[in-house]
Amino acid sequence: MSTPTTHSASPETAKAQLGALIDEALARDAAEDSAVRLEVPIEPINAIAWLQAQGPQSRGYWRNRNTNFELAGIGSADMITAEADADYDAIFRHLQSHIAKVHPDLRYFGGMRFSTRRTTSEPWKVFGAYRFILPRFEILNRGDQSYLACNLVFHEDLDRASLNTELQAELSTMTFPEAAANTALPECTGRTDAPDNVSWESLIAAALREIESGHFQKAVLARETRMTFNAPLDPAPMLARLIDATHDCYLYCFQPKPGAAFLGASPERLFKRRGRHIETEALAGTRARGETQDEDARLSEALLASDKDRREHGIVLDTVKALMEERCHAVHTDDKTSLLKLARSQHLYARLEGLLAEDESNATLLRDLHPTPAVGGQPRDAAVQWLDDQEPFDRGWYAGPVGWVSADAAEFAVGIRSGLIADNTLSLYSGAGIVEGSVAKDEWAEVENKMSNLLHPLQESK
Questions:
Q1: Catalytic residue numbers?
Q2: Domains in the chain and their CATH numbers?
Q3: pLDDT in tens, 58-81
C-alpha cells in the first residue's frame, strides 16, 4: 500500500504521511498471520547515515551488485529463525505464507550457516542456523527514487493500540542525517590467525593427500583473522567506509542485537530468481590487481593462462551447469570464461541463466546450489565433512547464503569477503580453493589479498 503522492516528500512530511497510513492500517480488520507494507516516497536519503542514526539495535543493510537497489532496515515486524538444522522447505513455507499477494517490495532479509554439522560457537549463536527478518522500518533506495516504509504483521495476540503508540513514537524521534556522523574506527590492539602460517601449511598438505587419494577433487580451506580493538565496534561506520571501495559487490550487514553483526562485500551471486527466470555464476581463481595498467594486464593474462586456476574454475562451472540443467528447460552459459575485476582482486568468471521448470522452488535451489565448489569443494559432501573436521574455527554464516525473498523473486549472494563483529573483536574470513598443484604460500597470499578487500578500506585514514 502506498500514498497517491507523486512527488518525493521531505523527511518530516514523509513521517507524517507514514504515520497516518499506520493509523489507518491498524484500525482496519486484517486476517491473522498476514503482512502489510506501507510506504511513502521521500527525498533522496543516505541509507547508511540513517541506519547509524537509529542507534545500536536490530539493524540490517543490503545493496545489490549493480548498486541500483539499496535497503536499510531497523527493528523486526516478523522473524523466522532456528538453532537447529536449516529446513529450507519450512523456511520458505513460512515466508511465502506472509508475502504472497502482498506489496511487491515486501522482502524478508537474512541468511544461514555454511554448515549445520558443526557445533555452533558462542559468537555465532545469536544468528541461529538461519535467521530471516521483515524489518519494522525501512529506507529503500531503488534507482533514483527513495521510500520510507513500515511493515506490519497481524496475529491473534496483537495489541494494535500499543503497537500504534510504539510505532508513532519511533517515527517521531527518527532522524535523517545527510552523512554518517563518524566513520572513525577504534584502535586495533591485536591480531591472531586461525590457522596460523605453520598450521596452514599442514592443512594444505593434508588436503593434497586427500585429493591424491581420490577423496575429493577440491576443498576450499578458509582462515579466520581475529582483530581486537580498544572499544566496541559499530557496523554502520564500517559500511560507510566500504561502500565506495566495493564496486561490483553485494554489500550486506545483519545485526541481530547490539554488539553482534555479520557484514561483508561479496562479489559472488549464488542465484537471482524472478518468476521462473534464474541467473547464477561460476566464480573461482584469483589474482591481485596491479598497481599500474601494464601490471594489471600481466596479472590478468597470468590468471587466464593458469592451468591450476582454470581447473579450479572448471570444477565450479561444470558442477553449477549440471545442477542448472537438472532444474531448467534451457540453460545458457557464457561462451568463454572472462574476468571479474574488483578493487583489489580479479577472478575467473562465467555467467549462467535458465528457465526453471514450473515446480522448482527457492528451497530446492538453495539445497542444490549451496555450497558450490567455490566455497566448499567437490564432491560437496566429502569436502564439507573434511572441512568441518579440520578447520580450527566455526565458519558460522561465512560462505553461507545471504539475501532476500519476496513474493515472486529472490536473490542470494555467497557470504564471502565477510566479517563477524562480537563487541570489540572483528573476525575476518576468506578462503582458497585447494586442488592438485596448490602451493601453501601462494594460497596464504591469495587469502591475504581477498581479506584486503575489507581490511584496506577499514584501515585507511578518514
A1: 218, 268
A2: 11-173 (3.60.120.10), 188-459 (3.60.120.10)
A3: 999 999 998 899 999 999 999 989
